């Protein structure tokens, strides 16, 4: 039996969750206070995921950068690879908030979307 | 003189929230005055996620959260003056402002909502010895460079202070290829949210050195390194523990100060602990008809709480312009043992609708403590709290019934009972 201690990051409460594991299987989860926390804890011990928020180069916009994020959380181990991929991306103004900037980034099934409006300068 | 029902000073989350609420409640002759080129305030550079869980039941980034309100301001065609600086407000609610189009002008308000936000404590405020090279900047400035202007301020970084902006920047700079060597925190606990320590530091193996501080900055033209040391219980450096860390940038995340120069000029009384105005249950300052919300009132952890506070300020301002002054708020609200401050600082029970929310911070970290509200010897409320920490604001709701049925002559005290 293996016990994993997790601090939940879903909301600012920061619940301390204990997950009991046996042979890669989850035996019990304790200490969470909502269903999102339970889900987070289960993912965290099997496949931890994060939302990446960053920016990409923008051409002709009111800002030199466009802020973007992964539409859903992606596997934590992919963060660096995705950042390197996004370093190559350039967008042209105008862009609307929510527009897809990169579809299905690195085959994760997750899109990169714009998190602000970018106006033509 | 041009007259508005409500003048809102500041176009960040507090100002936007107040404007949208006032409009939706039918008060449309309002104006937002903003000194920047865009609405949104600090949210524009907070491109990380974690905003809106309470307000919109989804997780948004700062610009996305702001845009929800900006869209409404545009849809309602609310008056906005951008790149306009307020120079002065008077107790009779005349606002003097300046911009490059109209020069200096004055406008009159039925009510004023202060929503100017806060600014960061700079190096000068914490008196670190050493030279004055380039490469020392506050976390918010670093955030602006990286997220808005497209510059990386350095390659090898030490962060002093573990406020939320500092933690967020530790991750952001790491993602952009810089090496964050350590986050150094004077106190034995972080002043940031636990979730930020996990997802910004632990995820990237960035060390958090508690009870440590920077005792010297090295370098002539550019930062070359810092000397850090452990501190004792009086927060004095223990010289034997001094160690040198080479770095080209020192980022400061050492606290935020509500921006109240305008309030002071108007004769508004400030709370020396929060740095914001002393307010009553309506979020009205000591000057009738002038209200405060958001970080200008008290530094918040969550924008969702700022929005909630802005709504209350807007509704109070509306009541003021319709009904006039509220009657005195005579009941003092005090911070007792274990509590650093409480907002509001005084109340009038008659003005409370169903319940009132108090916001406060503890002085220290407490586990499994009781949060207690007392009046004289009588308990009004006792609540078990799993964890209290200065980095996380505490909310306490009290119902009007509890307050009405209590003898509040001696005021209300909030305190922590341990064990």
Automatic annotation (TrEMBL), chain A:
**TM ranges:** none
A Pfam family cross-referenced in the UniProt record is DUF1667
Tell me which Gene3D superfamilies the record gives. CPE0013-like
InterPro entries for the chain: CPE0013-like_sf, DUF1667
Q: Which residues form the signal peptide?
A: none
The organism's superkingdom is given as Bacteria
What PANTHER family does the annotation carry? Answer: DUF1667 DOMAIN-CONTAINING PROTEIN, MOLYBDOPTERIN OXIDOREDUCTASE, 4FE-4S CLUSTER-BINDING SUBUNIT
The protein's name in its UniProt record? CxxC motif-containing protein
List the source organism.
Thermoanaerobacter uzonensis DSM 18761
Traced from the root, the source organism's taxonomic lineage reads: Bacteria, Bacillati, Bacillota, Clostridia, Thermoanaerobacterales
């Amino acid at each position: 039996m293996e016990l994993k201690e997790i601090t939940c990051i879903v909301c600012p409460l920061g619940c301390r969750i204990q997950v009991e594991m046996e042979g890669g299987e989850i035996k019990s989860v304790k200490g969470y206070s909502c269903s999102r926390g339970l889900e987070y804890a289960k993912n965290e011990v099997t496949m931890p995921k994060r939302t990446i928020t960053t920016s990409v180069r923008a051409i002709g916009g009111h800002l030199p950068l466009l802020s973007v994020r992964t539409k859903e959380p992606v596997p934590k181990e992919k963060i660096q690879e995705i950042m390197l991929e996004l370093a190559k991306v350039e967008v042209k103004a105008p862009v609307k908030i929510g527009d897809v900037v990169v579809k299905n980034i690195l085959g994760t099934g997750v899109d990169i979307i714009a998190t602000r409006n970018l106006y033509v300068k | 003189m041009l007259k508005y029902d409500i003048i809102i000073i500041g176009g960040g989350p507090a100002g936007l929230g107040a404007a949208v609420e006032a409009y939706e409640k039918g008060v449309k002759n309002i104006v937002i005055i903003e000194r920047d080129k865009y609405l949104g305030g600090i949210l524009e550079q907070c491109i990380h996620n974690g905003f809106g869980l309470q307000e919109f039941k989804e997780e948004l980034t700062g610009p996305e959260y702001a845009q929800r309100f900006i869209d409404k301001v545009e849809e309602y065609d609310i008056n906005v003056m951008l790149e306009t600086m307020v120079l002065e407000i008077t107790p009779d609610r005349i606002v003097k402002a300046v911009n490059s189009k109209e020069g200096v002008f004055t406008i009159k308000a039925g009510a004023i909502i202060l929503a100017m936000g806060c600014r960061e404590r700079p190096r000068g405020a914490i008196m670190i010895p050493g030279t004055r090279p380039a490469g020392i900047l506050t976390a918010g400035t670093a955030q602006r460079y990286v997220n808005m202007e497209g510059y990386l301020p350095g390659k090898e970084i030490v962060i002093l202070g573990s406020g939320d902006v500092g933690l967020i920047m530790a991750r952001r700079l790491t993602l952009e290829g810089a090496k964050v060597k350590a986050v150094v925190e004077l106190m034995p606990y972080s002043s940031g949210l636990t979730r930020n320590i996990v997802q910004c530091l632990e995820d990237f193996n960035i060390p958090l050195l508690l009870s440590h501080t920077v005792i010297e900055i090295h370098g002539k033209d550019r930062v070359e390194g810092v000397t850090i040391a452990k501190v004792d219980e009086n927060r004095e450096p223990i010289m034997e523990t001094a160690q040198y860390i080479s770095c080209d940038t020192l980022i400061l995340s050492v606290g935020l100060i509500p921006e109240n120069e305008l309030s002071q000029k108007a004769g508004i009384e400030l709370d020396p602990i929060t740095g914001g105005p002393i307010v009553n249950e309506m979020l009205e300052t000591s000057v009738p008809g002038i209200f405060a919300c958001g970080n200008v009132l008290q530094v918040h952890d969550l924008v969702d709480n700022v929005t909630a506070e802005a709504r209350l300020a807007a509704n109070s301002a509306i009541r003021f312009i319709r009904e006039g002054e509220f009657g005195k708020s005579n009941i003092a609200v005090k911070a007792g043992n274990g509590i650093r401050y409480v907002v509001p600082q005084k109340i009038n029970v008659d003005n409370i609708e169903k319940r009132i929310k108090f916001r406060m911070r503890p002085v220290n970290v407490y586990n499994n403590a009781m949060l207690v509200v007392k009046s004289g010897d009588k308990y009004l409320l006792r609540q078990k709290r799993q964890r209290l920490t200065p980095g996380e604001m505490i909310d306490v709701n009290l119902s009007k019934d509890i307050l009405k049925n209590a003898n509040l002559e001696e005021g209300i005290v909030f305190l922590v009972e341990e064990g």
